[in-house]
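tool=predict chain=A
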Amino acid sequence: MKKNFIAIKKEFITKAKCKSLIKTLDKNLITDGNEYSNYEFKDIKDKKIQKFIVEKALAMIQTYCSYYQELNMTKDKWALTSLRFKKFKPGQAFYAWHSEHSGKYSTRVMVFQLYLTDHNCGTEFFSGETIYSEAGKAVLFPPYFTHTHRGQRCPQNKTRYLITGYYNFISLVSK
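tool=predict ok
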């Protein structure tokens, strides 16, 4: 694991599972409405899919916490509490620089991303690093200003799919 607080797990799930998730979830999507985000989405409510992703992510977050032990020292408990399926049509991306922590989202502790399609683009960090979209690849990173990022437009002009999740402080989310 690198010292940049970004964890990458290739082949987190199979390409076949990625295709299955797209087929199941790519229905009844809504538009974000944010001028910078340009995507359609749905919050994942299917308990079977939630359980599959949360259980798969458990080993990854445990490894992350063993490497960055400070994360285990937070006063409040936290967990992967929200998952969102996202579809970016050709030419679309969340192209504005942003972080995942804000007044509205102040309970976020970690970001989880799961790429469902292969593309010659991905998540670009302000630091200069780019994590390329590969079907089945999972990424963990902090939600803070230290990991300001943006999505890149697909140069092949293809539709992109991913699942984004957030580890949140449980006591604050449930209020």
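The mean pLDDT is 92. The first helix runs from residue 15 to 25.
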